[in-house]
Structure formats: C-alpha cells, structure tokens
Design goal:
Layout: E1 2-8, E2 17-23, E3 30-39, H1 42-48, E4 65-72, E5 84-87, E6 90-92, H2 98-101, E7 113-114, E8 134-138, E9 143-144, H3 151-154, H4 160-170, E10 178-182, H5 186-197, E11 201-206, H6 212-218, E12 222-225, H7 229-233, E13 239-244, H8 253-256, E14 259-267, H9 280-284, E15 289-292, H10 298-311, E16 317-321, H11 325-333, E17 340-344, H12 348-354
Helix pairs in contact: 4-5, 4-10
Residues 41-43, 46, 159-160, 163, 183-188, 206-208, 211, 245-248, 268-271, 293-295, 332, 335, 337 line the site of NADP nicotinamide-adenine-dinucleotide phosphate.
Length: 355
C-alpha cells in the first residue's frame, strides 16, 4: 500500500479534517500522481454533507485534480514521471459495454467508478478523491494537461469544464445560437466562457445582481436577474439552448418559457431534493425539451482541455489553503464564489503537522 494524506469528512455533520489513509500499490497499468491542485466542486459539498444517497464516510472529496506523475506501471506507455496530468470525476468503468465502447464512460452500463464515492475494482475499497497529496489511477482515466496552461486554473476544467463542454457540444452550440446559462458559479462561469469560445451569443441568468458586470467580463452579451419577473418575461421565446447549473431546487418554468420552438434546456445541477415539476404546457406548445447531462467521456475531456488551450480558456479561481475548505463550502452555499475555489496542495503539510 502507498501511504497518503488528505482531508476527509468523517460524518455529514463534521467539518473536514486531516486524514491518513492508503492508496493501492501501483499496478502495471497505473499512474501515480502527486497532486498539486484540486478544484472545489459543489458536488464535493453535496457529498461531504451527506446530501446524496450512498455516501460512505470517511470521505475524501475532490475530482478536479491536477498533478505531476511520480511513477508509472510497467505497461504504461502514454505517461512518464514528470508529466503534468489531470484526473476528473471518473477513475474506472467496465470498458466493455456499448457506452464505454462509444467513449461515453460516464454512462457506463454497470456504472463508472467515481474518483470518490466509488468502489475500487482492484481492492474492493471505497475510492478517495483529490483533497490529498497523491493518487493512483488507471492510465486510461488520466488526462494530459496541454503545455503552457496555468495549472491551478486548469484544475476546474476536469469537472466544471467538461460538464459544461459536453452538453454545449452535443447540442451543437455555436455561431447563430442564443444560449442561456442559469447560475453563475463554478459550472456556470465555465459554460459562459466555453459557449462564447464556440461562437454563440451568451446570456447569463443570475440571482445575484452583483454578478452582472462579471457576466459581461466573462463573455456574456447580457445578464438577466432571474428573480425579476419583468426581466424574465422580456426573454420569453428567445433562446435556442439553456444550460441550467443551479445547485438548488427551483421553478424551471420561467426558464422553459425563454426557449424558442424546439429549444432545449439541459439540467446539470444535482440538488439534494427535486425541482417542482415543470408545467407540461410550457413544453408541448413549442415542442420544447428538458434534458440532463452528466460530466463527459475521457476522450471528450481531452478534447475539451485541448480546446481550452487553443482558445485561452481557463477557470477564474480563488486559491485557498486546505484548512479553509469549510469556509469555502459556506461561501459556496451563499453563491459567493468568484468563480471556483482551488486548493493549493502545498498547504496540506500544515494540516499534517497539526494531525
Ligand atoms: P456553484 O459554484 O455553487 O454554483 C451554483 C450557482 O447556482 C450559484 O453560484 C448561484 O449562481 C446559483 N444558485 C441560484 N440559487 C441557488 C441556491 N439556492 N443555492 C445554490 N446555488 C444557487 O456550484 P457548481 O460547482 O457550479 O455546481 C452546480 C451543480 O452542478 C451542483 O448541484 C453540482 O453537484 C452539479 N454538478 C453536476 C455535474 C454533472 O455531471 N451533471 C457535474 C458537476 C457538478 P447565481 O448567484 O448566479 O444565481
Ligand atoms: Zn464536480
């Protein structure tokens, strides 16, 4: 076993704290990575606070990992010690079902293995995520960080980036399309940058008036205060596509009403309790669709990283020390994130001294 150290939630009510644990020994197809940065996704908070079913504790969250390869197994040819790499939300899948064959490991018919909240096939033990010093991952699930990228700003691409890139790309967002992004947080701000880079006209729907200026700076043509019924009414029937990233249950009808005929709204937020059901009339009279999307496949994640490198897209981040994770969660709950917290893993040693 390889000794590892990180921060874990011991129970849904406890703050995260120092935690020593084991990673599996390096297998022939494994890559060992010393973690440099890990982004803080709202999913980490949902999981650490036990808001989702099936969370086992202790839990080391974190699935926006950037680090440096320290060792590779005998049968690994794509990576070598010293390479800068990323790991996102998945560390394994069956690699045999039709979805895996299509490069859609996130829809693996037997279920992908999550970077945390998963069960490792090699050991039968729970997986632990990126709020830690090192990780061992099967090489097929390791991404190459394109040369020249700012590493801390690249970390959020591994979840927030791919989760927004995948639906934007699948529903063919591009020039001539008017695209709405609901919620300007980690996912939302990436959606704005990516949709803009794809050539679309982007409009942000936000509950936070103080984010209007930022929305424009990030690439939006305008920002609409979604709590203002008059402002929402003015947008009725004007959108080809809306990506809804909100992490809490809310009324979907005002957003569905903003879609054109045949428009699509895709939900990527995963609130702890369901949204109120949409009004059927809002769907049938304009043949609108309501859909969902889950992260993205491994090949698509590499495509997204390369797209971001070409277009100069990276996350807007606030770098935090590991020990400030609970404060970051509290700020996230208030929508006070500009626009992704990223943990500097060099600060983990402070926690180790305290442990
Ligand atoms: P985040 O940074 O906290 O952003 C969420 C944004 O939603 C907030 O900044 C806020 O923007 C808006 N919002 C409006 N009302 C809210 C409320 N009552 N509570 C919280 N937010 C509210 O979260 P994130 O990391 O982008 O994640 C968003 C959601 O996507 C989470 O549920 C997460 O679990 C989920 N997720 C899904 C996938 C997937 O594969 N489908 C992948 C990653 C994450 P405004 O201030 O602009 O209103
Ligand atoms: Zn995430």
């Amino acid at each position: 076993m390889i000794r590892a150290f990180g921060y874990a939630a011991q129970s849904p009510a406890a703050p995260l704290g120092p935690y020593a644990f084991d990673r599996r020994d390096l297998g022939p197809k494994d890559v060992q990575i010393e973690i440099l940065y890990c982004g803080v996704c709202h999913s980490d908070l949902h999981a650490a606070r036990g808001e989702w079913e099936g969370v086992a504790f202790p839990l080391v969250p974190g699935h926006e990992i950037v680090g440096r390869v320290s060792a590779v197994g005998a049968r690994v040819s794509r990576f070598k010690a010293g390479d800068l790499v990323g790991v996102g939300c998945m560390v394994d899948s069956c690699q045999a079902c039709p979805s895996c064959a299509d490069g859609l490991e996130q829809y693996c018919e037997t279920g992908f293995v999550g970077t945390y909240m998963g069960v490792e096939a090699e050991t039968g033990r729970p997986t632990n995520g990126g709020y830690s010093d090192r990780i061992v991952v099967k090489d097929d699930f390791v991404l190459k960080i394109p040369e020249g990228m700012d590493l801390a700003r690249a970390a959020p691409l591994l979840c927030a980036g791919i989760t927004t890139y995948s639906p934007l790309s699948w529903w063919e967002v591009g020039p001539g399309k008017r695209v709405g992004v609901v919620g300007l947080g980690g996912l939302g701000h990436m959606a704005v940058k990516l949709a803009k880079a794809m050539g679309a006209e982007v409009v942000v729907f936000t509950t936070s008036p103080e984010k209007v200026e930022d929305a424009r700076r990030l690439g939006a043509a305008e920002a609409v205060i979604s709590r203002d019924p008059a402002a929402m009414a003015a947008e009725a029937g004007r959108f080809d596509f809306i990506l809804n990233t909100v992490a809490a249950p809310h009324d979907l009808d005002p957003f569905l009403g903003c879609l054109k005929r045949d428009g699509v709204m895709v939900l990527v937020g995963v609130p702890a309790t369901p949204h109120p059901s949409p009004n059927v009339a809002g769907l049938i009279f304009k043949r609108r669709s309501l859909a969902g999307s889950l992260i993205g496949g491994i090949a698509e994640t590499q495509e997204m990283l390369d797209f971001c490198a070409r277009h100069g897209v990276a996350a807007d981040i606030e770098l935090i020390p590991m020990a400030e994770i609970d404060t970051a969660y509290e700020r996230m709950l208030k929508g006070d994130v500009k626009y992704r917290f990223v943990i500097d893993m060099a600060t983990l040693k402070d926690g180790r001294a305290a442990a």
